[in-house]
Structures are given as C-alpha cells and as structure tokens.
Write a structure and sequence with these properties.
Helix Hairpins; Methyl-accepting chemotaxis protein; about 20% strand; Beta-Lactamase; 5-stranded antiparallel β-sheet; about 375 residues
Length: about 375
C-alpha cells in the first residue's frame, strides 16, 4: 500500500518513467471513486482514462480500495477497446484508512507490436522495390511503416478495417493469406502477405501483421516475357514456313539439276544424229556422182537420170552444209546447259545450306522460347 504522504513523490517518479516503458503506460490516482490525476506516455493512443472519470464499484481499483490490497486484472478489449493489464495499489491516510488508489494500466501488446517501432524502420529499407509494413488490431490499423520508395497513403494508422481488406479476412480465418492486386486499386500492382497475431494466453487472434510490396518489376518482366514468347512463337512459325520453302526449293533445284542432265544427254544424241546425217550426206554425194557418170555413159537416154543425179548431189551438199549449223547450235546448247548446270549446282548447294541454317535458327528459337518460359515463371515467383 501507498502512504498518502508519499503520493507526490510517486507521481513525480511516474512522470519520469512514463516514457521509459515499452508500449506505453497510463498512471492515475483515484480519490473515493473519482480519478483526480492522469499521466499518459507520449504517443500512447488511449483516451479512456481522464480526470473526473467515475469508476464502477465493481472495478479492480474500487475492489483494491475496499479490500486494502493490491489488485491485478487483465482487461479484455471489449471494455476499453484495447487489451490492458491493470494494477491498483490502495492509498492509506495517517489513520490507516483506505482513501483511494494509485493505478497503472499497461496495454497488453503482442511481441510483434512491441518490437514494431524498432524493427520496422530497418526492415522497410531492405526491400529493393520498397515496402509498407502494417499492424492492425481487430478493428483498425494501429501502426504503419513505409519505405522511401513505396507507400499506400490510404492505409494509415487509425484507418478502420474494411471487409474487403486482406487483414479482415485473416482475422476471420485465423490463417496466413497472400494476395496479388492489380494496379487499378492502388496505382501499382502489389503483393500483400498478412499474418494473424495470436494472444499467448488465449490463443485468440488479436491483430495482424502485413507486408505489402510493389510488383512493378515482376509485372514488367511478365509482360516482357509474354511479348517475347508471342514474338518468338510468330518468328518460329515463320521460320518453319521458311524451312518448308527451303526444302521445296531444294527439291525443285534437284529436279532442275536432273532435267539439265537430261538435256545434256539429249544434246549428245543430237551430235550423234548430226554425225549420222553427215555420213548420209557423204554417201548421197557419192551416189549422185556415180549417177552422173552413168547418165553420161547413157547419152541421150540418161539425160533425165542425170538431172536426178544432179539434184541428189545438190541435196547432199545442202545437208552437208547444214551439219555445221546443227553442230554450232548443239555446242551453244551444251555451253548454256553447262552454265545452267553450274548455277543449278550452286543454287542446290545454297538451298542445302539455307535448309541447314534454318534448322539451326529454329533450334535456337526453341531454346530462347524455353528461356522465356523460365523467365515468366521467375517473374510470377517475384
């Protein structure tokens, strides 16, 4: 118990210690059933105790005064909107009468909530794209910490929890949840992971801790990967068509090469025919000469035969004169065919190389496509 005479010193000590207790504290004195003095830790958002407050006769403090003994109580959230641990010490006058109480109320904070002011500023700068860390009780945000690179201004300390927020769902389900949200809601795509915070004694959910990170890089990677994959698919399709065309060209060149070889063979046969014609022309000329000799011997009776013999000789000479022309044409054909044959062989070789190169490009495109798919998986995992 506390002597009335020592109360001023106790108040002075409380003024000093109020900002030394982690999580904050509220000190108060009660005279009769009325609170006459209150001291809050700086920054403690708790306005349930104030000078002039009338206490219920069944409260912990009034019981301590009546029974002249120190009383402790864990106050649930339903009473003051936050969980408290209250200690009340009776104040005794010179006659030993209990005239009031000195009370101390400490918010019952989850360890994560207590440590939040210490670890949150450091943790917030460890995310390359930025982060917002948030703490809630069962009704509202109680603390937030944003990095320099990223913030969600609409989610701040004191803002009530709406039903559509992930924190509300985690409180109901009592399970960790992760959600990805597109850029329409907060201006950038984000990923939120929320974790329920449990009371050590009752194992009931008392709040949540959530981590929100922007996913602009991952979204950009996914978009780039999708575009790359689509473009590669189109390129691969085009190259496959090119490969099919190259194969067809190769087949056509092969057929052309075969045709040129056949023409070469026919030209050689033309030479043979020309040689045969020359032989016939020579023999015909000889026959015409013999016929002229015989016509001269026959005199008047062989004159007609002589005309025929002369005509045979003329035809023989014409045939013989035609042979060089045929030979020249054949040689020209052979030269053209040989030139075409060389071009055909070169084209055939080029088409073979094109087909081989196309196959290599197709294989490379498939490898790049595979890499793009892996990149897409990585982007989704970020």
């Amino acid at each position: 118990m506390i002597s009335k005479k020592s109360l001023p010193d106790l108040k002075a000590l409380a003024e000093f210690e109020s900002n030394l207790i982690p999580g904050g504290v509220v000190y108060g004195t009660i005279e009769g059933d009325t609170m006459t003095w209150v001291k809050y830790s700086d920054g403690l958002d708790l306005d349930v105790f104030y000078v002039g407050l009338k206490l219920d006769k069944n409260s912990t403090t009034m019981t301590a005064i009546r029974e002249k003994k120190i009383m402790y109580q864990d106050v649930p959230r339903s009473v003051y909107g936050t969980r408290l641990k209250i200690a009340s010490i009776p104040i005794i006058d010179e006659e030993g009468n209990s005239i009031g109480a000195f009370s101390m109320a400490i918010p019952r904070l989850h360890p994560v909530v207590k440590a939040f002011p210490d670890f949150a500023p450091m943790l917030s700068e460890m995310f390359s794209e930025g982060v917002q860390l948030r703490l809630t009780d069962l009704n509202k945000f109680v603390a937030t910490q944003s990095s320099q690179k990223f913030d969600i201004p609409s989610l701040k300390k004191g803002i009530d929890l709406s039903e559509n927020l992930i924190e509300s769902r985690v409180i109901k389900s009592k399970k960790t949840e992760t959600q990805e949200i597109d850029a329409l809601e907060y201006g950038v795509p984000i990923r939120v992971s929320a974790y329920p915070l449990f009371d050590d004694d009752t194992n009931e959910v008392v709040g949540t801790f959530s981590v929100t990170t922007p996913k602009e890089v991952a979204s950009t990677l996914r978009s780039m990967s999708a575009n790359l994959e689509n473009n590669l698919t189109g390129i691969s399709s085009t190259i496959q068509e090119l490969a099919a065309s190259a194969s067809e060209i190769h087949a056509n060149q092969q057929n052309l090469n075969d045709t040129i070889n056949e023409i070469t063979a026919l030209s050689e046969k033309i030479n043979e025919v020309s040689s045969f014609i020359k032989d016939i022309a020579d023999e015909t000329k000889m026959l015409g000469l013999n016929a002229s000799i015989e016509a001269a011997r026959a005199g008047e009776y062989g004159r007609g035969f002589g005309v025929v013999a002369k005509e045979i000789g003329r035809l023989s000479e014409q045939s013989k004169n035609t042979i060089p022309k045929i030979t020249k044409l054949t040689q020209d054909i052979m030269a053209k065919v040989e030139a075409s044959n060389k071009k055909s062989e070169s084209s055939l070789s080029a088409s073979q190389e094109q087909a081989a190169a196309t196959e290599e490009i197709t294989a490379s495109i498939e490898e790049i496509t595979s890499t793009s798919e892996e990149l897409n998986k990585i982007a989704h995992s970020l």
